[in-house]
Amino acid sequence: MSARKRLPRSKAVYILPNMLTTASLFLGFMGVVWSMAGDFEATALAILGSAVFDALDGRVARMTNSTSEFGVQFDSLADLVAFGVSPAVLVYTWQLSQFGRLGLMASFLLVACGALRLARFNVQAKVADKRFFTGLPIPASACTLATLVLFVPFVPQQLIDAALAPALLALVYLVSFLMVSTVRFASFKELGFLRAHSFGTMVVAILLFVLIATKPRALGFVIFLSYIISGLGYTLFVLSRRGAKLSRHSREDSSTVCSEENGQ
Fold first, then answer.
1. Using CA atoms, how far apart are residues 188 and 172, in angstroms rounded to an integer?
2. At what angle do helices 86-94 and 157-179 cross, to 10 degrees?
3. What EC numbers are recorded for this enzyme (predicted)?
4. Helix crossing, 101-124 with 86-94: angle to 10°?
5. Cβ(83)–Cβ(114) below 8 Å
6. Is the residue at 2 inside a domain?
7. Structure confidence by residue, pLDDT tens digits, 178-192
8. CATH number assigned to the domain comprising residue 183
9. DSSP labels for 59-81?
């Protein structure tokens, strides 16, 4: 009896992360379709689903030791559709079309800055600090806009009518700028602190799960907005003070060296 022909294990495992990337790409494409049809909540959920698959494909590739240059490039192209084009079409068809050319260019800026962010990430991936992202990750940018769609029903109607469209326009420009900025955002890839405080981490994780499960639509936007604020706060206050201390110590050391040389 002839044995059934099977793919070698290495090749079979290699397909799995790319299938997850394809699922992310498909949801991004469906998000564009649903935006043009006016189903904005479905688009928001599609973007969030893409983020889940995007997180899984990299982890699966590393766990199965099936990472490849092809997978890296395919993942970047899928991300540009799922987290660049899809949210740009979403915000334009949802609110920004009323601003005319200004809204159109804001939506395009989201795609352009997302592409630049992905290109910079691919170039700097081997030398970058694994603890932080330089610039807002494009999935976080897309998820911030997507969760805003789900958050809006909790906002008073008078406030929606008066401020939603201008606030969204400002938010689009903000996340576009942050994607190409040098602001540092936590990557959560280095888990040494979490492992050292495993019990406390577990308690915090349970509390967050309970809160999110209670009001997932309301808290999603709050979480992503808090992530953006945390990156800005860390860069503006922690890194700036650290840089000021280093420059001050450098000046003190140089003045000490100069005085010693003059003493000689």
1. 25
2. 150
3. 2.7.8.8
4. 160
5. yes
6. no
7. 999 999 998 876 555
8. 1.20.120.1760
9. HHHHHTT---HHHHHHHHHHHHI
Helix, strand, or coil (residue 185): strand
Q: In this structure, is residue 1 part of a structural domain?
A: no
Tens of pLDDT, residue by residue over 16-43, are 888 999 999 999 999 999 999 999 999 9
Helix (H, G, I), strand (E, B) or coil at 125: coil
**Cβ contacts of 118 within 8 Å, gap of 6 or more:** 76, 79, 80, 138
How many CB atoms neighbour CB 230 within 10 A?
A: 13
Residue of 58, 57, 49 lying closest to 31 (CA atoms): 49
Q: Does any domain span residue 198?
A: yes
Residues 85, 10: Cα–Cα separation, whole Å: 33
What is the 3-class SS of 189-252, one letter each residue? CCCHHHHHCHHHHHHHHHHHHHHHHHCHHHHHHHHHHHHHHHHHHHHHHHHHHHHHHHHHHHHH
Please say whether the beta carbons of 187 and 134 come within 8 A. Answer: no
* pTM of this structure: 0.81
